[in-house]
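Protocol step 4 of 6: structure prediction from sequence.
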Amino acid sequence: MVYSGAIIGMLVISLAFSVTVGVLSATLGMTVDEISNTDAYRYFSYLLYQIVYIAVIAAFAVIYRSKPAEFGWRRASHFKYYLIGLVLLFGLMFSLNFVNNAFVAFLGLFGYELPASSLPSLEGGGFVGVLIVVALLPALLEETIFRGIILEGIKDIGTVAVCLLGGVLFCIFHQNPAQTVYQFVCGAAFTLLAVRADSLLPTVLIHFVNNAVILFNEKFAFLEGLPFGAEIAIYVSSGLCLLLSLGYLIFIDKRGNRKREWEIKPFAYAALAGILLCIVFWITNLISGIVS
């Protein structure tokens, strides 16, 4: 219900926002394109989804009388999971980015083009605002939903199943064809880390760091133009980090392991509306990228 509620809420608020922009366009004598290129519009386009996440989380907490600790907001069982999470993230960001780029190149064979960036200005103090809206809030709220509420509700279907399902739900939720591979693996790996740590705090940390690194690179381009040898060293070391961290979490640390204990049908029925909407939006975005 939380998953479907978030998607339906995003759809409703997006439609309301579009209508509002249309009214403002007529009132201010500006075209929709002119309004959409303003920083105010771009900030609102990110904040609206965060408002939906907050509303869904609050509704869940009130209806089920749940405290934050009951859906993941508790201290990690051991500090090592924060370190493992950072090592895992380093592996994901670079070695997995190579795989994701190959997937985007594959989509490009069919005419798909990456959508243009719609970030607010990163100049001056605006960078802090973008860091909060694009990096911090999504890390806090998306992790609360996915590695908190949803994970607490479905983790008894078995560790392997819940990690794969967590990856699928996370990647289609973002409805971004270009990031499908990256977000699927991140979703599955973050879910595994949360299961082992019995907390979503390590995943909040690495989710924020992931978003922040992307923003810092967008502003300072510190990963651009690296010597070939440095690129090879980064990819090799990140690949080793990915293998070592996942190997430890899968084969050595068995904390939180569960065998299948109940049917997945109750979850599937409640989440079906959200899953179908996400798939439709993912296909729509793919077609849009090809047509454009």
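Step 5 (inspection) to follow. Residues 80-108 form the longest helix (29 residues).
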